[in-house]
């Protein structure tokens, strides 16, 4: 079984989904991606999660993020489950759900954790950048639903820090001040950040978020 680490190229695969067959890398194209797994269809926590993602799709679209879910059940099961999700969560599922009956994708992404379950996938999340590199991995137990506000927050941070020489501090929210990366000397900060900076300690310098007007 593969072990995926941050910075690895996300494994490519071909799979049947509720929206037709996809070749994962081709489907992502130049977008960022979120791949998240579910233990099985017709599970209560996952039903709420998929409904939430459908409601959040405009936020993902705004950030150029494509979302795909995965379950080890088949397409017919997915179709029935999607109907339940739409009914109970008052939404319309608007992203593909991968049918991974042979667990090929689950194995590629190390989603089967035998000490948790020998058959069902754990509740994993992978964020993938346009270069197909894995930028974030979060794994939840089956009993705990994911926080998609947090996932949006992390994507904002990943996209900001990918293009600007900053990091985001604890509990950062979009619009908050950022931390200047240590590789930039204090003397050189004005060359990189026109909005000014604050030196709290020589190693701790903050600046207003650079990608906001």
User: What can be said about the biggest beta sheet?
Assistant: 5 strands, mixed
- How many domains, as an integer? 2
What sequence of helices (H) and strands (E) makes up the elements? EEHEHEHEHEEHEEHEE
Mean pLDDT metric: 91
Strand order of the largest sheet: 5-4-3-6-7
Q: Quickly name the level 1 CATH class of the largest domain.
A: Alpha Beta
Number of separate strands: 11
Explain this structure to me?
The chain is an alpha+beta fold and 213 residues long. It has 2 domains: 14-145, Glutaredoxin (3-Layer(aba) Sandwich); 164-207, Antioxidant, Horf6, Chain A, domain2 (Antioxidant, Horf6, Chain A, domain 2, 2-Layer Sandwich), CATH 3.30.1020. The protein is built from 6 helices and 11 strands. It has helices at residues 24-28, 44-62, 75-89, 104-108, 148-163, 189-192, and strands at 14-17, 20-23, 32-38, 65-71, 97-99, 123-128, 134-140, 166-167, 178-180, 198-201, 204-207. The strands form 3 sheets. Strands 5-4-3-6-7 form a 5-stranded mixed sheet, covered by helices on one side. A 4-stranded antiparallel sheet has the order 8-9-11-10, covered by helices on one side. A hairpin with a 5-residue loop joins strand 6 (123-128) and strand 7. Helix 2 packs across helix 3 (75-89). The termini are far apart. The model is unreliable at 114-119 (pLDDT under 50).
Can you give me a brief rundown of this structure?
The protein has 213 residues and is an alpha+beta fold.
What would the keywords be for this entry?
213 residues, alpha+beta, Glutaredoxin, Antioxidant, Horf6, Chain A, domain 2, 2 domains, 5-stranded mixed beta sheet, 4-stranded antiparallel beta sheet, 6 helices, 11 strands, 24% strand, elongated
